[in-house]
Amino acid sequence: MTVQENVRKPLDLLSDALGAEMEAVNALIRDRMASQHAPRIPEVTAHLIEAGGKRLRPMLTLAAARMLDYAGPYHIHLAATVEFIHTATLLHDDVVDESRQRRGRPTANLLWDNKSSVLVGDYLFARSFQLMVEPGNLRTLEILSNASATIAEGEVLQLTAAQDLATDESVYLQVVRGKTAALFSAATEVGGVIAGAPDDQVRALFDYGDALGISFQIVDDLLDYGGATETIGKNVGDDFRERKLTLPVIKAVAKASPDERAFWSRTIEAGDQREGDLEHALTLLARHGAMEAARRDALDHAARAKAALAVLPAHSIRDMLADLADFVVSRVA
Amino acid sequence: MTVQENVRKPLDLLSDALGAEMEAVNALIRDRMASQHAPRIPEVTAHLIEAGGKRLRPMLTLAAARMLDYAGPYHIHLAATVEFIHTATLLHDDVVDESRQRRGRPTANLLWDNKSSVLVGDYLFARSFQLMVEPGNLRTLEILSNASATIAEGEVLQLTAAQDLATDESVYLQVVRGKTAALFSAATEVGGVIAGAPDDQVRALFDYGDALGISFQIVDDLLDYGGATETIGKNVGDDFRERKLTLPVIKAVAKASPDERAFWSRTIEAGDQREGDLEHALTLLARHGAMEAARRDALDHAARAKAALAVLPAHSIRDMLADLADFVVSRVA
């Protein structure tokens, strides 16, 4: 952590400012995660709720609506919708990645089985669609259903692209927009739409979420290779061991000598990894300035997020959103 | 088959009557199953489209809309939505059941992998939600999003109930309403709603789809144990080998002696199956009249489906729907 622990983080400040509304979102989530008939559903969802999580995405919806003076009540439904989509995606991701841990706890696919994770994930998707219908607003329905399709498309694209050295930065961006940024940008955009904001402000909210989501994912990629400074919470090299082509590697592959290319092909494409390979990968990333170049991209996207806020009304929430963009990249600043 | 081959089947007659509209549905399905970015998606969806299928569910939507003189165009979107939900469910079902064949062809989870089936299924779910938003009709959105939640809930309930001898007929009905009847009843109901039908007719369409779906599933259960007469297309005993408590078994368990109960507990609950067990199961089903009782239930639901049609306007399509209810149970009549 490069920020000092005695400085309050932007997400905590947002949580304080939006506390009552976030409580309403949490109550709605608890209510709709229940099931009258299938006991396995509350078992799995209780596990997910207890695991906590930052509730970053629903907070973005609440923040956008508040900044634009929306009096409610439907930002609560939209924020809960966004969290349901996110949670359903996590359940299915853990099946696809065969993950055993999430947020320091065993995953649902480990505690129960893949079947339960697939079907309870489907249930949460369906619940998210019920929730997004309730505000009766067709434009927010379009935005959220489009985001769901973009997310799923990005996840499928990642299946084939992640282990293919032909994957370039434009394909990477496509995947990241799908798996991460689409839900961030939908979260902020629907907050503006439900508040009746003019088109330029809605567009700015989309751009903020899109840029924030992309910088968030690039930072995640960087931390997986140790980041720029000391790191927390992530094991260095997980992406390498899982043979995922992330931005630093894509940049190093683009500059690779034939020998280096053979190394990446063996370790990522063929999955033949040996003692010392991770260390060699880190050497190659350093040799080509790949970490530094990815870090600059993350900072550029964070700057783009902050710039997008300019057309939005001056508001304490707007300042917190600007700080949030800085905070996301502070982990690699 | 108990119907004669030279008599045209109700589904063929419906196909003829609704041919142009079904072509429009098929074109919309092909269009929306594509993906601009992820090549794995058209690979998997082309496999599904080639496998064909009866398109029974979208036909129900078209039939309801036509019978109530709807001039279009949104019954096409709703019918395609219903088929997308069905197809997404099949992809996930085959992962959950570890199926290797569907409609006589290898399943997607076998040809590609479980990951692709989970994520392409999610993509089709998301596409279904995009499609259902397009008509801009909030009531059809409620019906279809509620049906999606009921389907997922039924699937999860089946996970725990299917191998539990405590599962009684009311739990069975809950599962069947989820996994089969909810989409039938939503398909017919939205056809009526988009046509602007009065409440009593919409209710009748729901009841028809609900009853048709339940009789359809009970017949499926019966055929799995050989049906009442000769059968086609299904291997006798698949449900038994997969340890699924279906209606005939639930009825036999309810009347079981302690010894018989121990047999069901060993074979279904514990999954310890030996040579001759399927034959003994068939003997127990016969001893307690379980097949005959389940057959009567199927006929009762088919009769309920036909009775529901009474409040709908006289129409050649209405007659075909009545014949369809008879046809469904003709396989065990």
Automatic annotation (TrEMBL), chains A, B:
It is an enzyme of class 2 (transferase). The keyword Nucleotide-binding does not apply. It comes from the Bacteria. Keywords: Magnesium, Metal-binding, Transferase. GO terms for molecular function: transferase activity. Its EC number is 2.5.1.-. Its cofactor is Mg(2+). InterPro entries: Isoprenoid_synthase_dom_sf, Polyprenyl_synt, Polyprenyl_synt_CS. The keyword Lyase does not apply. Belongs to the FPP/GGPP synthase family. This is Polyprenyl synthetase family protein. It comes from Paracoccus rhizosphaerae. The lineage of its organism: Bacteria, Pseudomonadati, Pseudomonadota, Alphaproteobacteria, Rhodobacterales.
